[in-house]
Specification:
The complex is a heterodimer of chains A (221) and B (83). Chain A has one domain (31-212). Chain A contains nine helices and no strands. Chain A has helices at 2-19, 29-34, 36-39, 44-52, 54-72, 94-117, 125-141, 153-176, 188-212. Classes of the chains: A mainly alpha (221), B mainly alpha (83).
């Protein structure tokens, strides 16, 4: 009852704020569009994410990493380093396996495409990475592959690749472009795509590991 | 006659209806299905608000990944006898 009253109160407050917005509503869209030329990008949303507020985006990836650490931290000691429990049913239906065979190759292509066009059109690293993550998840749900051991080196590297490359480029900007997270003029777009490629990898690995949960199998001897 | 305002109104009613249904659902799995449908409808709303980037994120994260997480936790809860 108390929760319902609180929810109604929050909803009413939100509605009041929306109705009291000044006309025209304040916007930074013109400024975001103005700086586009310097980044070489065509999509102002990507420019905001990877150029104007790149540090925030890097920290978001660190938050995702902390979430994985949080999930793994509830594992019992004897399973540490092992694999999470397999997803889906023990005997998957034929339709699910067929769906995987038909959808996954296409989905991987769409995911990479969404990342690539994100520089100029709606899309980007997070959306593309999420689609790739979904593809890996449905492959695991159909039991065509199991979740990897959480101690696997390639998995650890993939999990940190995005924020690590992002941070390394940010630090390099200190020496090359004269400021932390500054991109050298004229080279901004290739550098942004380079960072995003590693972020796609990290996102595509992080989200399925969050879904797979903590390790529940003993690490192989 | 312009059909878009009619479609927008229908979309708004649908979003509210699915939201209400999700809250009222008695079963955890049903509520999760409602939540996923709600997220997908919401991403159409974002497209209508000319924010395709937000729509993509809503569909992928809000509906997709969160939906899978909720389905998994729902199944675990059922196994533990909690709902």
């Amino acid at each position: 009852m108390l929760a319902a009253a609180l929810a109604v109160l929050v909803a009413a407050a939100l509605a009041a704020v929306v109705l009291m917005l000044p006309e025209p509503p304040p916007t930074l869209a013109p400024e975001a569009r103005e700086g586009l030329a310097a980044t070489g990008l065509g999509n102002p949303v990507t420019a905001v994410l990877i150029a104007y507020r790149s540090f925030d985006t890097m920290l978001e990836k660190v938050v995702l990493l902390l979430a994985v650490v949080g999930v793994w931290s509830v594992a019992s000691d004897r399973f540490w380093g092992g694999a999470p429990a397999p997803l889906g049913r023990a005997r998957p239906q034929g339709a699910l396996i067929f769906l995987d065979q038909a959808l996954v190759p296409l989905g991987i292509l769409v995911g990479i495409h969404i990342f690539w066009v994100g520089a100029d059109e709606p899309g980007g690293a997070f959306q593309g990475g999420a689609i790739l993550a979904a593809m890996w998840m449905i492959v695991m749900i159909a039991r065509l592959t199991g979740p990897p051991r959480v101690g696997a080196r390639w998995l650890r590297l993939a999990l940190i690749a995005g924020p690590a490359v992002f941070l390394a480029v940010g630090l390099a900007g200190l020496g090359i472009a004269g400021n932390f997270f500054a991109y050298p003029a004229g080279f901004a777009k290739p550098i942004i795509l380079f960072i995003e490629a590693f972020m796609v990898l990290t996102i595509a690995v992080t989200l399925p590991m969050l879904v797979a949960g903590p390790p529940r199998r003993s690490p192989e001897p | 006659m312009n059909l878009l305002p009619v479609l927008d109104l229908g979309l708004a009613i649908l979003v509210l209806a699915v939201a209400g249904w999700t809250i009222a659902a008695r079963e955890a799995f049903g509520a999760v299905v409602g939540y996923v449908a709600y997220g997908l409808l919401l991403s159409i709303v974002w497209v209508r608000l000319y924010a395709p980037d937000v729509a993509l994120t809503e569909a992928a994260i809000g509906s997709g990944v969160t939906g899978v997480l909720l389905v998994t936790s729902g199944a675990r809860l059922r196994r533990a006898g909690g709902g």
